[in-house]
From TrEMBL:
One of its GO terms (cellular component) is riboflavin synthase complex. CDD domains: Lumazine_synthase-I (cd09209). It holds the Pfam family DMRL_synthase. GO terms for biological process: riboflavin biosynthetic process. SUPFAM superfamilies: Lumazine synthase. This is 6,7-dimethyl-8-ribityllumazine synthase. Belongs to the DMRL synthase family. Its EC number is 2.5.1.78. Gene3D superfamilies: Lumazine/riboflavin synthase (3.40.50.960). It catalyses: (2S)-2-hydroxy-3-oxobutyl phosphate + 5-amino-6-(D-ribitylamino)uracil = 6,7-dimethyl-8-(1-D-ribityl)lumazine + phosphate + 2 H2O + H(+). Coiled coil: none annotated. The keyword Manganese does not apply. Pathway: Cofactor biosynthesis; riboflavin biosynthesis; riboflavin from 2-hydroxy-3-oxobutyl phosphate and 5-amino-6-(D-ribitylamino)uracil: step 1/2.
Amino acid sequence: MTRAGSQSNLVELDGTGLRIAIISARFNDHIVTALRDGARRGLTRLGVEDSDVLEAWVPGAFELPLAAQAIAETGRVDAVLCLGTVIRGDTPHFDYVCGEAARGIQDVQLATGVPVMFGVLTVNTEQQAIDRSGPGTDNKGDEAAVGAVEMALLLKCLRTTN
């Protein structure tokens, strides 16, 4: 288990019983697989059972929001992690994909009430992506997993407090 939150409000995170979806983009899959592995490690560390993790793959980061929405609308998951990697190139394609993926992911969580984590690396170089997808807890997939558990627990608490 891990601690998260401000220093004045540290909370133990226990993901036992949570159901989490991981949606991964195949484009740059050598990086995204490392992010997915980091997310899995993070979920396991927080007590989420492997059998409570649903995984799906989509072609690229642009398709993440649609898959996230489809999974969130089923009511079968407490949170969704969207994982991808977009590396800047010589054209404005990078800006369109990153911006629309971010907007779409935000729209899904606001429309469904299910936390959807933005675990999409938006980097200038492949080395930056490799540096953010390593084996430690600084892996951005692991960080997205921690955020998903934290938000799922927070929303459960907020929704039952009345």
